[in-house]
Amino acid sequence: MGSNTATIMTLANSIIGVGVLAMPFCFKQCGIVLSILMLILSSGLSRLACHFLLKAAIMARRRNFEFLAFHTFGPPGKTIVELFIIGFLMGTCIAFFVVVGDLGPAIIAKLFQLDNTASLRQVVLISLAVGIVLPLGLMRNVSSLAAICTATIGFYLCLVFKVMAEAIPHLAANDWMDKVHFWRPAGLLQCTPIFSMALFCQTQLFEIFESLPNANLDKMNEVVRHAVNLCTGFYIFVGFFGYVAFFTQNFTGNILMSFTPTWASDAIKFGFVLSVAVSFPLVIFPCRASLYSLLFRRVQMPHETTSSHIPETRFRFLTIAIISISLTVGLITPNIELVLGLVGSTIGVLICVMFPAVAFICISTKSSSERLLAQFLLFVGVLILVLGTYATLNPTQNGDVEGQTFPPDRIDSIARMSLLPVDKAVTTIKVIDFKHPEQIEPK
Fold first, then answer.
1. How far apart are CA 179 and CA 17, in angstroms?
2. How many CB atoms lie within 10 A of CB 199?
3. Pick the residue with more confidence: 52 or 345?
4. What is the rounded distance in angstroms from the CA atom of residue 399 to the CA atom of residue 396?
5. Where are any strands of DSSP class E within 47-166?
6. Judging by beta carbons within 10 Å of its beta carbon (0-12, 13-18, 19+), is residue 303 exposed, middle or buried?
7. What's the fold here for domain 2-299+308-439?
8. How many angstroms separate the CA atoms of 330 and 21, rounded?
C-alpha cells in the first residue's frame, strides 16, 4: 500500500458499511462457494467501473461527475446525472439514519436500563446528527478523515474477529460441513443486488482522489484495487464465519442480532453505530458538490476547468440542509425500505455501473478491447438493474429460505443501498425489527 495507505483506508471506508451485516445471510441463501464467487465477480465489476470512470474523466480532462456528464451528454445530461447522484446519496444518508435508528436506541436502552421508545430513537438520532455527523460533515477535505477512516476499518477487523470467535465451537466440533450449503443458485435472485452493490464506491472516487497528490490513472487504479480487495476480504470472512457460527439458527440480514449476549457483543454493536455515523461525511461530500453544481454553478465553456471551491456560506448551508432533510425523513418515516431499495437498485446501478461504461464508450471512439469491455459492463449493468428492481418489488422472494418464511426486515432492504451504501449505498439489507424479535422463530 505504501504512501497511499491513508487514501486506501478512506476509500475502503466508503465501500464497506451496512452491507457487511447481510453477508452471512447471503452465504446461507447462495451457499459458501457461490457466494465467494459472486463477491469476486462483484470485486472485478467494481474495479472495472472505477477504471472506466477515471479513464473517461482523464481523457475528457474533467475531475468530477457533473463536468464529465456535461462533456459527454451536454447540459441536459449534466442535470440528469446531478439529480441522480443527489437522489442516490440523499437516499443513502436516510438509510444511514434508519439503520442507526434501529440499532442505536436498543443499545442505549440496554446500557442505561431505559425503555426503547420512539422518543429515545429521536434523541439518539438528533444527538448523533448534531454531535458527530455535522462537525465531520463541515470538514472541507476528505483527507482530514483519514485517521477516522483507518480507525473505522480497525473496528471492522474487530467485527471479523468477533464473528470468527462465534464460529470456533462449530469449527472445533467439525459439525457444520454436511449441514451448510456450498452451492445454492436458488438464492441468487435475492442476493444479486446485495453482492453487486456491496463493493461500489464510484460516487466517492473524485472527492477522494482530489486529495491524492500526483494522481494518475495507474496510481488511482492501484488505490481502488487495494481498497476493493480489502473490503472483499472482510465480506468473505464475515460471510463464511457468520454462516458457520449460526447455521443452526434462523437469521436474516442483521448478523449482530445473533451474537451471544455479552459485553463484547454490545461493544461491537455500539462500534457499528459509530462507524456508520462517522461514514456520513463520505456521502455528504459528493452530495454537497452535486447540489452546489446543480443550484449555483453554470458551465458555459466546456473546455475550461471551473474551480471546485464552494463559498463558505453556501458550504455550510448545503451541509446543514443535507443532514437536516435526511434526519427529518429518517425520523418521521422510518419504514421506507421499499423506496430505499428501489433507489439503490435503479439509480445506484445507473450511476455506479452504466454511466462509467457509457461515458467511456462515448469518449473513446476507437474500436478496442477496452471499448468492448465497456459495452459488456453496460450489458451487465442493465441485467443488475432488472434483477435488482424485480427482487425489490417481489418481497415474497426475499423471505423464502429453504421453505421457511421470514418477516420483512429493514437491514436487508437497505443492503441493496449499501453504498451504503449503504449501502450504499448506499444497496440494501433487511433490518430486523428490534421491537418484535419474537416474530422470528428458532428451529
1. 29
2. 29
3. 52
4. 6
5. none
6. exposed
7. Hydantoin permease (1.10.4160)
8. 20
CA–CA distance, 54 with 135 (Å, rounded to integer):
30
94-122 b/e with 16+ CB inside 10 Å = b? Answer: bbbbbbbbbbbbbbbbeeeeeeeeeebbb
Q: For residue 248, give the 3-state DSSP assignment.
A: coil
Query: Considering only CA atoms, which of 290, 135, 278 is closest in space to residue 207?
Result: 290
Please provide residue 420's backbone torsions phi and psi, each rounded to the nearest 5 degrees: -35, 65
Is residue 149's pLDDT more than 80? yes
**Residue 396: what pLDDT?**
52
Angle in degrees, 0-180, between the axes of helices 312-332 and 118-128, rounded to the nearest 10 = 160
- Cα 162 to Cα 265: distance, rounded to the nearest angstrom: 8
Question: What CA–CA distance (Å, rounded) separates 171 from 245?
Answer: 8
Q: What is the distance between the alpha carbons of residues 269 and 257, in angstroms, rounded to a whole number?
A: 9
Identity (one letter) of the amino acid at 258? S
Kindly state the cell numbers that stand for 364: 473513446
Round to the nearest angstrom and report the end-to-end CA distance of the chain: 45
Q: Which pLDDT value is given to residue 209?
A: 81
The amino acid occupying position 43 is S
DSSP assignment of 298-362? ----TTSPPP----HHHHHHHHHHHHHHHHHHHHH----HHHHHHHHHHHHHIIIIIHHHHHHHH
Identify the DSSP state of 256. G
All three cell numbers of 233, joined, read 476480504
H-type helices in 174-311, by residue range?
188-197, 202-209, 217-245, 263-278, 280-295
297-317 mean pLDDT: 70
Residue 288 contacts by C-beta under 8 Å, 6 or more apart in sequence?
A: 310, 315, 318, 319, 322
Identity of the residue numbered 360: F
- Coil, strand or helix: which one is 401? strand
Cell numbers for 54, please give them.
477515471
**Per-domain residue ranges for the chain?**
2-299+308-439
Cβ pair 95, 417 in contact under 8 A: yes
Cell of 192: 444479486
What are residue 419's DSSP bridge partners? 422
Residue 405's DSSP bridge partners are: 400
pTM metric for this prediction = 0.85
Burial readout 424-440 (b: 16 or more C-beta within 10 A, e: otherwise)? bbbbbbbbbbbeeeeeb
The whole-angstrom separation of Cα 268 and Cα 20 is 13
56 pLDDT tier (thresholds 50, 70, 90): very high
- Amino acid identity, position 259: F
